[in-house]
Amino acid sequence: MNEEDKKKYHDKYLQAKQKGVKFYPDIIYKDLLVTFAIFLLLIGLATFVGVASEPKADPSDSTYVPRPEWYFLFLFEFLKYIPGSLEWVGAAVIPAAAVILLFVWPFIDRNPKRHWTKRKIEIGVMFVIVLGIIALTIMAVVSTPPQVEAAVAGSLTEKILLGQDLYSVNCVECHGDEGAGGSVQGVEGMEGVILKAINTRDEMYTRDDKSLYDITDYGQQDLGMTPFGKGYGGALGPGDIDAIVAFMRYTWDDRSEIPAAVAAAGALPSLAPGQVASYDAQVSTIFKRFCVSCHRSGKKNNNYLMGNYDEVINSGDNAPDIIAGDMTSNMMRMLNREKIDAGNPMPLTKPLKPELVAIIQNWVMNGMPQTAEQAAAITPVGAEGTPQAPAAAVTPTIVVTPTITNTLTGSETPAPTATLPRITVRQTLTPSPTGPTPTGQSPSATPTP
Ligand code: HEC
Ligand code: HEC
User: Which ligand is nearest to the CA of 312?
Assistant: First the structure.
């Protein structure tokens, strides 16, 4: 910059100063306002939107792919092009040099012109750098392998409910649905072994969370409980085991008070008078709590899987095990504690509460609707929620009056009840569970004439 320019700028500066807007307090005040607004915005975002947390760190989990936040991905990608021994240059020296260069740039670049046509080289160089950053970011995103989604429980309520689900799947087969123990049935190698209750004061008062965690993590191998922790060959990560411990503590320890939301969400399903049960709303919860721990792959269960609607209806060595409108299907007879060719009374150890059996019965008699909407569109069949007599005592001929909705066509919109065709089907119940009965792939199945 020559003397003439310098003088020109100095004059301009003096003029502007005369006009009177002072850095302190005028400009600072504006800055403060904006800063405060952004601060409030951040608090609002943190409170109402938040960032989903990841599962608890798990040193034994080799599938976890650590990645920085997106705005640092370019640096991360950049490091890949630097040989390992020079990592410190790429990680510290080059970024630090770049920041320092930006910092001292006003002292190096004394070009007084601000218009871009007069600063082509500088703008060109910066343009290339920004392009490079964008390119590196994209490359990093593309090369990031998909992260295995792990269930993460945020609130205590979510944690307890997750724990309940995990307990149902992993522990019920031996410890029973409420941890009451007793004689183990249908578990290979454990047949008839008597387990003590783990839901008692004795257990809950003497075991702290840490020891419950450890027992679940590495099992009680000498007594027949295999390890569940990933570190010992099991399937559960630290967050999962934490959730199970929270579930046990909050449901079985009479010193801790279960949050109301958990009690409501974890409660066993029930039906209002005249309500039709659906798979999604009630039946799946019952199956999950009382059956899935044995009826999933890898367990002894006659290949009858009960993880979803389709499996419940179609799988099993003696499929169909459950038939719309049929009280003599394998499942209904087993639930009513009959021993039949397909197997023993179900669940093996302890009878299902009559009100739960009644819900399943209600669901079967109303054509086994899958979603709550489909159930709501059906006029109930004898659905007072009263437990009916076991299948054997049912009169041989019963009249089923299902209302066939347009869900048969796969259409999602239920037609108004008044316009629905109403058919009366005479169904003869034969003791044999096999026969040309529909397997009920359609939510509102047609009972056999
Ligand atoms: C294969 C059967 C089996 C499964 C599945 C199983 N356990 Fe166990 N568990 C046992 C046996 C056997 C013992 C030894 C105690 C006994 O004999 O009563 C035991 C003991 C325990 C104890 C300690 C009792 C005490 O104070 O000594 C806890 C707590 C426990 N299990 C929790 C769990 C949890 C949580 C799960 C599910 C993640 C689970 N168990 C799954 C068989 C099993
Ligand atoms: C403790 C493990 C266990 C639990 C819990 C359990 N089952 Fe079973 N289930 C079995 C075994 C084992 C068989 C194979 C037959 C046998 O050994 O009795 C079986 C067979 C069946 C079958 C016959 C499948 C076929 O096609 O042959 C049905 C239906 C069934 N179970 C329904 C249920 C229902 C419904 C529940 C929950 C209310 C339930 N089970 C809970 C272990 C279990």
Answer: 2
